[in-house]
Amino acid sequence: MAPSGPGSSARRRCRRVLYWIPVVFITLLLGWSYYAYAIQLCIVSMENTGEQVVCLMAYHLLFGMFVWSYWKTIFTLPMNPSKEFHLSYAEKELLEREPRGEAHQEVLRRAAKDLPIYTRTMSGAIRYCDRCQLIKPDRCHHCSVCDKCILKMDHHCPWVNNCVGFSNYKFFLLFLAYSLLYCLFIAATDLQYFIKFWTNGLPDTQAKFHIMFLFFAAAMFSVSLSSLFGYHCWLVSKNKSTLEAFRSPVFRHGTDKNGFSLGFSKNMRQVFGDEKKYWLLPIFSSLGDGCSFPTCLVNQDPEQPSTPAGLSSTAKNSENHQFPAKPLRESQSHLLTDSQSWTESSTNPGKCKAGMSNPALTMENET
Ligand SMILES: [Zn+2]
Ligand SMILES: [Zn+2]
Questions:
Q1: Closest ligand to the CA of 135
Q2: Which residues make beta-bridge pairs with 142?
């Protein structure tokens, strides 16, 4: 548990205020860029009315989308695991009594047997967060800054002072895309005036300095944003989070860096949703509940319900729980099909009915 007391809480408060500095910096920069572009460049320096109108309209469109997606990324609360993943009071007591050992493992195994989880720790144990006292859903990680477990955590971003995860990953991508377009647009339309600055073609007013610095800032941010945006496009195409790109998820059969990849088109739909009209808008449209994800694993985990409700009994009876050499396809997930699946077999998301414990599992706390 975190140390408590007036000193530590004041320090925490102070740290929380400091975390907003990058957001304030971006906001001030954005405000200045508005003044420099819309006022000093378009209204003061442009002589052609047609160019003025076109530039101002396109600029305001990009500015609006940039601010909207940035706002949504900052203020969308990260999603935490649902109550099904939290241990009951009795289970917590048992764990406290048995901090290690087989009894400890048994408690976790029993608590996890009905949960839709496929990933494990490096040692094959169920992923458990000591801090939040819950069994971590797949792709969920504990953020030390937020001090919470975050569903499909990508990373904690200081530029938005928020965790980027299941609830706001789409917004974050759009924020990168629109901020990149914003910078590219400014750099492209400012270029001829930037050249005029160096050839003394601009009147000697303060506007010329805004024009020069605006071009430098736009060009510089374009370079850094394009690399970051390109990297996240690659992550989306592979259905990976930043954390998973650094450390591949571990499944029961072992590490699989493409364990959640369903193919390019379906990977895109996981983040942006099925309806293309929402793809470019910072409106939540990602598929799923953030607690369970379809996989393309080659092995089926016998301790987890993995087949549609109507098929599960047949599959279970016909095999002695050996892993079939076929993938867990999206048909086994409610995320990609309309058919009833194991996650939908219960009214509680995250709970499912079939399952048996796996004695081979070991316990390891993972944060
Ligand atoms: Zn946690
Ligand atoms: Zn965080």
A1: 1
A2: 149
Q: How many CB atoms lie within 10 A of CB 226?
A: 14
Residue 254: beta bridge partners? 251
Tell me which ligand sits closest to the C-alpha of residue 148: 1
CA torsion 79-84-86-92 (nearest 10°) is 180
Question: Cα–Cα distance between 146 and 367 in angstroms, integer?
Answer: 13
Cα-to-centroid distance, 250 and ligand 2 (Å): 22
Residue 167 pLDDT class (50, 70, 90 cuts)? very high
Q: Which positions are catalytic?
A: 157
| Structure-derived torsion over alpha carbons of residues 307, 313, 317, 319, reported in degrees to the nearest 10 | 0
Cα 139 to ligand 1 centre (Å) = 12
Task: Please give the residue that has the higher pLDDT: either 105 or 263.
Answer: 263
- Tell me the one-letter amino acid at 57: M
Task: Give the Å distance between the CA of 102 and the centre of ligand 1.
Answer: 22
pLDDT for 4:
56
The DSSP call for residue 343 is T
**DSSP, residue by residue, 266-286:** HHHHHHH-S-GGGTTSSS---
Residue 141 CA, ligand 1 centroid: distance in Å: 7
Q: Which two tokens stand for residue 86?
A: 């939290």
Each domain of the chain, given as residue ranges in start order, spans: 7-75+167-238, 83-164+244-365
Please determine, for residue 238, whether its predicted confidence score (pLDDT) is greater than 80: yes
What is the per-residue pLDDT across 310-359, written as a single tens digit (0 to 9) for each?
333 333 333 333 333 333 333 333 333 333 333 333 333 333 333 333 32
Closest C-alpha to 167, from 291, 65, 281: 291
d(C-alpha 246, C-alpha 141), whole Å = 13
Nearest CA to 329 out of 252, 284, 238, 262 is that of 262
CA neighbours within 13 Å on the CB side: how many for 210? 21
Q: How far apart (Å, rounded) are the C-alpha atoms in residues 147 and 143?
A: 5
- Which ligand minimizes its atom distance to the CA of 128? 1
299: left (phi over 0), alpha (psi -120 to 50) or beta: beta
Write down the pLDDT at residue 285: 96
Predicted model pTM: 0.79
Asked whether the predicted pLDDT for residue 190 surpasses 70, the reply is: yes
